[in-house]
Amino acid sequence: MGIKWDEFFVTGDPLIFASQIGIALTLVGALAGITYFKKWNYLWSEWFTTVDHKKIGIMYILLGVVMFLRGGIDGLMMKGQTAVPENDFLNAQHYNEVFTTHGVIMILFVAMPLLIGLMNFVIPLQIGARDVAFPQLNALSFWLTVSGAALFNISFIIGGSPDAGWTSYFPLAGKEFSPGIGNNFYAVALQIAGAGTLMTGINFVVTVLKMRTKGMTLMKMPMFTWTSFITSIIIVASFPIFTVALALMTFDRTFGTHFFTISGGGMDMLWANLFWLWGHPEVYIVVLPAFGMLSDIISTFARKTLYGYKSMVISIVMISVLSMLVWVHHFFTMGNSAGVNSFFSITTMAIAIPTGVKVFNWLFTMRKGRIKFTTAMFWALAFVPNFVIGGVTGVMLAMAAADYQYHNTLFLVAHFHYVLIPGVVFPIFAGLYFWWPKMFGYMLNEKIGKWHFWLFVVGFNVTFMPMFFLGLDGAVRRAYTYSAETGFGPLMMISAVGSVILAAGFAALVYNIYWSARNADRNIGNDPWDARTLEWATATPVQHYNFASLPEVTKLDAFWHMKKNDQLQPLTEDEIEEIHLPSNTWIPIYMGVVFGISGFLLVFEWTIAAGIAALGILAGLAFRSFDYDEGFHVHKDEIFETESNWRKGANKGVKNHVS
Amino acid sequence: MKKSKLLLVSLTSIMAVLLLSGCENNMVVFNPQGPIARQILELINFSIALMLLVTVVVFGLFGFIVWKYRERKDNLDYEPPEEHGSTVLEIIWTVIPILIIVALTIPTVKTIYAIDEVPKGYEDKEPLVINVTSADWKWIFSYPEQGIETVNYVNIPEDRPIDFRLTSAGTMQSFWIPALAGQKYTMAKAETQLYLVADNPGSYVGKNTNFNGQGYAGMEFEVLSQTQKDFDQWIKDVKETAPKMTLEEYEKMLEPSHLGRKTFSNTHLEWVDHSDPHSKNYTNPEMYDRGHGWPGKIFEDKDNYKYKDGNNDNSNHENNEDMNHKESETEDSHGGDHSGH
What we know:
The structure holds two protein chains of two kinds.
Chain A (H helix, E strand, L loop, with lengths): L13 H23 L3 H9 L4 H30 L9 H35 L8 H20 L27 H29 L12 H33 L12 H34 L7 H15 L14 H13 L1 H15 L8 H24 L1 H7 L3 H31 L5 H27 L16 H31 L38 H7 L14 E3 L5 H17 L3 H19 L6 E3 L1 H16 L8
Antiparallel strand pairs in A: 1-2
Helix pairs in contact in A: 3-4, 3-5, 3-16, 4-5, 4-6, 4-8, 4-14, 5-6, 5-18, 6-7, 6-18, 7-8, 7-9, 8-9, 8-12, 8-14, 9-11, 12-14, 12-15, 14-15, 15-16, 18-19
Chain B lengths: L1 H20 L13 H34 L18 H28 L13 E8 L2 E6 L4 E4 L1 E5 L4 E7 L4 E5 L3 E6 L5 E5 L5 E7 L11 E7 L1 H14 L5 H7 L8 E3 L48 H4 L8 H16 L1
Helix pairs in contact in B: 1-2, 2-3
Family (chain A): Belongs to the heme-copper respiratory oxidase family.
Subcellular location (chain A): Cell membrane
Enzyme class (chain A): oxidoreductase
């Protein structure tokens, strides 16, 4: 294999050298800490081998928050580099690696895990189920995501990071122009994580279709469940495209085929098409569940049913259909005929129609309401004006002829940050503040939450608003530097200052989590927000079997009506039955590890070793097929005790913890 | 609570003002110097006006609703009504966006078709063809009619349609002169086309907007629009004084590098047309090695750049196993004919 160990680690860059030391120390520290406090057993049996959707959800969220830190530091480095003209904080190569990993990490290892984490935690509870349809597959999805994320993240200290942009356009991303292994990390790590996501999509389609509690018809599902369901369908439709594209990319890079290269008759445009056939729906995969969260949160804090529920459902279905029909708008300037560009202009602009319907429905949900300004609601409210800016600039970009002037400029960068941050990150924050009590049994601090909110929202606008003007003045994206004569300097500096405020906002969130974990009130009951959907009908934090007896639904906002009509009967002993649950299993984490090892070897083009390691994957599959563990039963006594404990507390005066 | 609400309202209004102020300024897209860029700007202005209208309406409605229906001390016992929607209202806010989209679609489609052609009023003037070849990380402009070639700058006559034929020798780039026209990609073994006209003499910035590796940020060129007289004089000067480029020099030029301005009294089109699907490859992987990290395996294609020495046309086709084998050979012999002239 010709291993050159002196080139194994990335050397020669002081920033990277410092992080190598930092990572090594953190790793040693963490391992030593766990050993010292004798937590290995606890971690293994309670978390690593769990198949409980709630714990898997929480682990996804943890992964997302940690990756947010990494992606955020990348963003700050970029802003630091471009703050002044001709800066030499980062060189071109380093900058290229940073923006590539920033893009990939933020989309695939921040937005996706956070959303899938919240979906995992909330959906089974919202539909009144005890788990997802395939609990062990769910754990496998998670560990494959972790495996992909880990593989992608080590690239900057081992071997070198990908540097062809998160879109990795060919021929640049091919061996002809990127001979290093950085882009192998892209191909392999995303393949592994993508497999996990595809399984999640399948899992949630089946869960929502098959696991709904009695009486919950499709049109009585909470909006978050609806949007997650549609999202899962888009995942199933679009991720296989990415799987194929990445596989072809791996063949091109590792085995010398010519699918996308220019030298052997390959088609570089084929990559662009396949990438965006997945990449565009991907945008809706992250934005739709976020829309669902907003719907639930806005209706909760406005104390009203979601306005226009039916048209909301029709809108998301429309959006999902259109999402697969607009991919060409990412390359209007690639020399398509006027007819092709016109068609994709129209389909793209058409997305504004269902989206507009949703915005007005949200506004009218609040009309005649009594809006309670919790931190979660703050995030949901901030979504509207900020997302509208992202939306209208999106329509401007959709006009192909006008796009000839915006394409690949900072105008475009500003636009998609105005869509993705208010449209995905704000709702995720809203969702975290909203569902945090359900996950952990205490609320995040509202006051620190407001600091988090204002710093983040102001910082966000100061960072990205100037980019619209920079783009219209001819500033292109992904350029690591620019000359003073361009006149971009002042606005770039404002933008950089904004990013620091933004980062301070994120720091406030981290501090809030720390502060609340130590100091927050634990006696908050099961329904601190006076909420409307079924997840609040269980204990806080949720007991591992979710529901002692599965609730019966007659209306939309089921829990709200149960509360109003006094149908929250205390459970009697004879209503309780034994509950069957699946056992923990080590197979998913084992699979994550072997996928990771095999992937790592493949990245380094040690194909024989990778093939041998891949036998471990087959071994895992074989073992699973002979695994006859039927799970276990939760006994009546235990259920009765748990249920009477929390139900007693629920009736005490614990409501209204928010000023 | 009230204070934060006020802040939110003021913040959103500041953003609206910022957006509005975007219309009067000296940003390059808002100062078109030719009919194509002007047509695009008209479309942009129209869309900004419509989009501002949408923004103002939504922001206004948002501010009003959030303010009016906020929770106050005196409405704590107010229980909101149970509303499920209104078919009429929902139809209204479905139809209005449809109308807006239609209003945007019509001029968009018109402009898309219009800028694909020689701009109106210039149909009678014969376009000047300039072949643009992008390479890492420089721009090569060939004037096939005049038989000259420039690197990193292009001179054009004012008031005459220019017909740019775009291609790339390697990676994918995007050719953009914001003051004169929108952008188009340049791709190896393919040709895209871009028309533009410059109103007046003047110097404009052109650049690459599509990321293509380490030298990307420096891929700028100057577009100098001249009077026809000055342009003719320049052509004459170049033909008389500029050196001839050799094939070897040209191939050296295609290596990844930054170059200053260069001028030649011949064009590379006599040896290679990169837009031809069967043209030779000029990739050179080891020159892109970035000096840190694991190097990765490089596939040694027979027709790669590094085998240029001692390699003739025959080995060029070893990798072209498809049925075009014969066709490409004849095309290459055409190329030979040209150089013979």
